[in-house]
Amino acid sequence: GEERAAAVRAWRDGTARGLQEEAVAAVRAAAPAGFQVLLHADPVPEHCGANAGTDPAHILSVADGVVVPCATGTSLLAPFAAHAGERTVLAANFTVVSQMGGSPRTLAADAARARTAGATELRLYHAGLASDGDLAAVREALAAR
User: Fold this and answer.
1) What SS3 state is found at 125?
2) Which of 20, 128, 19 lies closest to 66 in space, CA to CA?
3) pTM of the full structure
4) What is the DSSP string of 25-45?
């Protein structure tokens, strides 16, 4: 029931926080001074997948920033933006391969929405796999900026 679900959730959240803290600490210990540590993240703690669910306030107290999936919109940026400091990196990650569900032709408008939502950087997901047409659309979008 609810009690067991709450216990599992508390265990999962604590375990995830510990792993995130240990991973960031390990990178900081091995990297040169000034190296930025960013984590792919989703602001809903119970989400799982390539963009692990996190508590935005906690993760931004540990890492230098996050890379946020924005292929379906920029709404996931707001919870991180609410906890961002002046030097926090909030990278909006857009898929730019049409055959993978990306929308390189709307990149300029998508980037503008991301900036309004608090993004400080853009990431172009799988640009190395993009077709010539997709890359041309990306170049056009970035040149229009």
Assistant:
1) strand
2) 20
3) 0.91
4) HHHHHHSPTT---EEEEESST
